[in-house]
Amino acid sequence: MTMDALGVNPLLALGSHIFFIGVSFFALQAIMPQAIIRKNRVFQTQLLFIMLSIAIGSSVSNFFLDISYWSGRLPFIFG
Description:
Keywords: Membrane, Transmembrane, Transmembrane helix. This is DUF1146 domain-containing protein. The protein has 3 helices and no strands. 78% of the residues lie in helices and 0% in strands. The chain has 79 residues and is mainly α. It has helices at residues 3-6, 8-28, 42-78.
């Protein structure tokens, strides 16, 4: 039985995406948007932060999942 049949890979991918989205949201909070964002645009600023967190977190998660996948395939190249 493969890992995909057990549903491990989708759970790993989902967990990875959620983790890296959270990390990117945490990291983005170090930015001080007051200098960039217009006054009285709190909702738009929060929405922008959430969307940036999703975009950055998904990209980083895909990078690590791809690295994990391809490093697992290396023995097939040399073996």
